[in-house]
Amino acid sequence: MDTVFLLAALGMMVSIALAMIRVVGGPTVLDRIVGVNVIGSETTVLLLIIGYLFDAVSMFVDIAIAYAMLNFILSIGVTKFFLRRKGRTLRSDKS
Q1: What is the pLDDT of residues 3-38, one digit of tens each?
Q2: Residue 89 falls within a domain, yes or no?
Q3: What is the pLDDT of residues 76-85, one digit of tens each?
């Protein structure tokens, strides 16, 4: 059973790497924000999987909840910041 969770964790890390490509090369700011939010959500699940693998789920649940709250607040704050900028567009290229 641990092998399944280990493979799931490796799959999550590959998915995080793919989302990082979107963050670095995203054509718009909103694509980058969504990429960072995906990375944060997958990291939360990855923390829970690591907690199961180390038999310390109670400690990792607390860390995952705190990380998920910070990720949620950060994504809302950054989105509101970019939506309220005056005279700017959300596209990084000016075409």
Answers
A1: 999 999 999 999 999 999 999 988 888 888 889 999
A2: no
A3: 888 888 888 7
25 occurs within a structural domain: yes
DSSP string, the chain: -HHHHHHHHHHHHHHHHHHHHHHHH-SBHHHHHHHHHHHHHHHHHHHHHHHHHTT-HHHHHHHHHHHHHHHHHHHHHHHHHHHH-TT--SBSS--
Which structural domain, as residue segments, surrounds residue 25? 2-84
Number of domains composing the chain: 1
46 burial via Cβ count (<10 Å: 0-12, 13-18, 19+): buried
Residue 73 resides in a domain:
yes
